[in-house]
Structure formats: structure tokens, C-alpha cells
């Protein structure tokens, strides 16, 4: 297989993984896992920063253009 073809396959795979991880079903599943919950005993400052990060992710703030 030519090198360019392998690179296209890798790009297609990366795009598919991103698409699946971004799906509503996967997000709901991950939110239900204890390891992905915010520990209520975390310092307030850390919880605030995590809240800001969550907001930025959902609003698209600071998103980088995806390499295609």
C-alpha cells in the first residue's frame, strides 16, 4: 500500500473515532461512569475551572480547526 493511502486511512479512522466519541449516546454513557464525575470534595476553585472548561467545550470557544 502506498504511503499516501495509509495516511488517508489514518485520517479517516481518526475522524470516525472523533465522530463516535462526540455522539450523544457515548456522552451519556461516559457521564454515568463514576470516574468521569466531579468529586464534590474538590476545592471550589477546581470545580469552577472544570465548569468553565465544560462551558468552553459546549460553546465552541477556543476550538482549533480540524486537520482534514
Question: Could you describe the 3D structure shown?
Answer:
The protein has 68 residues and is mainly α. It has one domain (3-59). The chain contains 3 helices and no strands. The protein is elongated. The two termini are 20 Å apart. The model has no long low-confidence stretch (mean pLDDT 81).
Query: What is the mean pLDDT?
Result: 81
- Strand % is under 5%
Shape: elongated
Task: Count all strands and give the number.
Answer: 0
Write down the domain tally.
1
**Number of DSSP helical runs:** 3
Rg from alpha-carbon coordinates? 17 Å
- Helix- and strand-based class? mainly alpha
Report the sheet with the most strands, covering strand number, pairing sense and barrel closure: none
**Cα-to-Cα separation, first versus last residue:** 20 Å
Share of residues in helices: 55-70%
What string, H for helix and E for strand, traces the elements in order? HHH
Task: Produce the secondary structure layout.
Blueprint: H1 3-21, H2 24-32, H3 44-59
Task: Give structural attributes.
68 residues, mainly alpha, 3 helices
Short summary of the structure?
With 68 residues, the chain is mostly helical. It is 65% helix and 0% strand.
Amino acid at each position: 500500500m502506498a504511503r499516501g493511502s495509509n495516511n488517508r486511512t489514518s485520517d479517516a479512522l481518526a475522524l470516525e473515532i472523533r465522530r463516535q466519541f462526540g455522539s450523544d449516546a457515548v456522552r451519556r454513557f461516559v457521564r454515568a461512569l463514576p470516574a468521569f464525575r466531579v468529586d464534590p470534595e474538590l476545592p471550589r476553585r477546581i470545580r469552577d475551572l472544570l465548569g468553565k472548561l465544560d462551558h468552553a467545550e459546549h460553546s465552541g470557544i477556543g476550538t482549533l480547526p480540524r486537520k482534514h
